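Researcher: Structure for this, please.
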Amino acid sequence: MLDKKRSLRPVAIWLLVGVAMIIIQVLLGGITRLTGSGLSITRWDLVTGSLPPMNDAEWENAFDGYKQTAQFKTINSSFTVSDFKYIYFWEWLHRVWARFISVVFIIPFIIFIIQKRFQKWMVNPLLVLFGLGAVQGLVGWIMVATGLHGSNLLYVRHYELATHFMLALLVLCYTLWFALKMLVKQENIIVSKPLYKLSVSIITLLTVQLIYGAFMAGLKAGMFAPTWPEINNAIIPSGDILFKKSPSIINIFENEIMIQFIHRGLAYILFILVCIWTYRAYKISQPSPLFNKTKWLPITLVSLQVILGVFTVLHSGLKQELLWLGVSHQFTAMMFLMVMVWEIYLVRRNKG
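Model: Predicted structure, token format:
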């Protein structure tokens, strides 16, 4: 199984293909959420579930299953079969793409074992990667099952949504880091303790921001204050609005206005931190070629992300505009996260 003489480039390419596929999967998840499609498939057979209904009778049967859900009875009771097909498609594609990712990971994995292309240091990371993928699939199944069997749930809860989303990003970043270990040469690594510490701070804050982004989507919080720069005519909403729920701590997780207030505030802080990061990056006296070529990316992406965030909030009441702005906002967030992972790989705290 182990051979240090075999090239690792095919393995790295395999992982980068996985990164691209995970990005698509997360975007499909975003579309599924924004179109309210997540609870459209009430039955999922392991084999036959890979195919959508193939005739009118099968579509009617699938639609009848959806009619039993609280979502249909409460908000989609006027749906026709045509409307149902639309939401079914996005959930079906989201699930099938997940299966496709599994195939793309497993088949080359077997081939690489036969070719003895894996090295000893890669065994544990591979086990972790497959473990994370399995956990992510399990969380997705639990998330939908909980939504389908809740008598008063109209959508998947924002807690489960955030967990599913953050696990997907963890798999994404872990896969990218694994690939970078095979592709980036040591001469491209630079040492800057201040820049490293700032990069870690940005990624930490970004992680919290991404969780709140999932809360925003899960609670449709943008619709509660579709204004900017004020939040419903106030820069800082009053205490009785921010802390309207009891106990007070629950507002941080379930109060739509508080969640939007936190999400916006974190965005401004991140923008300032990335400006500082960029200033320090350009002050590095001996940057590596790769770092020099990519040090402009964080400020570009965070600026674009802030702009998209503003437009997403302003259009949160418009279904079609929200869909594509929301997906673009999510895509840019992933790109920003991956760029910061890239930068923190290139910038080390110390040598070695």
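Researcher: Any notable elements?
Model: Residues 186-352 form one domain. The chain has 13 helices and two strands.
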